[in-house]
Write a structure and sequence with these properties.
The protein is an alpha+beta fold. The protein is built from eleven helices and 15 strands. The protein has one domain: Jelly Rolls, CATH 2.60.120. The longest helix is centred in the middle third of the chain and has 25 residues. Keywords: Dioxygenase, Iron, Metal-binding, Oxidoreductase. Pathway: Phenylpropanoid metabolism. Pfam families: 2OG-FeII_Oxy (PF03171), DIOX_N (PF14226). Its cofactor is L-ascorbate.
Length: 356
């Protein structure tokens, strides 16, 4: 690479990675041997050296894997989904009806987008993107973070097919849209099952808009890291969504906090599966029955990793709080009503530093 930067000069690194749009992928491609200082996590946030670190990971346990093939004939499928949402906040689903080809295509499209030259990706960065609904960036919030995450991303907020066709990058828009469309049926079924347990008898249009009125899809890229034991791909956080549908590749690296004892559990990639997790919005609406759980992603020293989450959210204009059907049963509301767009603004202002 022609571009010379001083790795010991943090302004130089930030300029190269953030402002010039090279991302951490650009750093990784320089074959650097040591991690720049602003990527070195404090000891308590590192997750790889599991044996020597205070962050304990339980390698023998994992989140439930639920087979949806028999959904129509077997009431236990819906039960397992609700149980997992209460006890784990996370589960994987297989035989979910989203074609494997759609999953492979969107992973391929993610690699294609991140293989573009920096100047092509940079035209989607927040300052210059032709729309607020498309932005390319790195880490989570470089302005708020003391230490940066080893990750680049493209974030696509869905407004309409026409808007996506006009503004989403051409190398990945068809595949991203297809993954979003094909997973909608699964999302609806999952929410119907989860709502039943909350005493919500039918999912009418108002409920549907409240629960899944807006969607965002992210294409995440985690390049090979020179010192993975010192860095983090994504810091610990919970999602602000109703539900998140995550497609991960076969690299692994997603860890979930276990409710019972605060240890971290690896979510091993299962071929053809989707990882589902409860977001803050659904925890609030279920009055705390369904749990939105902290998770994080480790950095990897030998493989580039991609993951594609779809965040299914209330519309920004919705006021969310415990559902009336839940309160009707005599539960005391554990959360106050909040305008969802205010919640979102608060979420994006801070760093990924856990669930407050």
């Amino acid at each position: 690479m022609a571009h010379e930067i001083s790795l010991s000069n943090s302004l130089d690194v930030t300029n190269f990675v953030v402002h010039e749009g090279n991302g951490v992928k650009g750093l990784a491609e320089m074959n650097i041997k040591t991690l720049p200082d602003q990527y070195i996590q404090p000891l308590q946030e590192r997750t790889v050296s599991m044996k020597t670190n205070s962050v304990v990971a339980d390698e023998d346990e994992s989140i439930p894997v639920i087979d949806m093939a028999d959904w129509d004939r077997n009431p236990k499928v819906a039960e397992s989904i609700c149980d997992a949402a209460e006890k784990w906040g996370f589960f994987q689903i297989v035989n979910h009806s989203v074609p494997v080809q759609v999953l492979e295509d969107v992973k391929g499209a993610t690699h294609r987008f991140f293989a573009l030259e920096a100047k092509e990706k940079r035209q989607y960065s927040k300052k210059v993107s032709p729309t607020n609904n498309v932005w390319y960036g790195t880490s989570f919030n470089p302005q708020a973070e003391k230490v940066l995450e080893w990750k680049d991303y493209l974030s696509l907020f869905y407004v309409s097919d026409d808007e996506a066709t006009a503004y989403w990058p051409s190398v990945c828009k068809d595949q991203a849209l297809e993954f979003m469309k094909k997973s909608e049926f699964v999302v609806k079924r999952l929410l119907e099952a989860l709502m039943k347990r909350l005493n919500v008898k039918n999912m009418d249009e108002t409920k549907e808009l409240l629960l899944m009125g807006s969607k965002r899809i992210n294409l995440n890229y985690y390049p090979i890291c020179p010192n993975p034991e010192l860095a983090i791909g994504v810091g610990r956080h919970s999602d602000m969504s109703t539900l998140t549908v995550l497609l991960q590749d076969d690299t692994g690296g997603l860890y979930v906090r276990k409710m019972a004892d605060d240890s971290w559990i690896h979510v091993p990639p299962v071929a053809g599966s989707l990882v589902i997790n409860i977001g803050d919005a659904l925890q609030i609406m279920s009055n705390g029955r369904y749990k939105s759980i902290e998770h994080r992603v480790t950095a990897n020293g030998s493989k580039n990793r991609v993951s594609i989450p779809i965040f299914v959210n209330p519309r920004p204009s919705e006021v969310i709080g415990p559902l009336p059907e839940v309160i009707e049963r005599g539960e005391k509301p554990a959360y106050r009503q909040v305008l969802y767009s205010d919640y979102v603004k608060h979420f994006f202002k801070k760093a990924h530093d856990g669930k407050d």
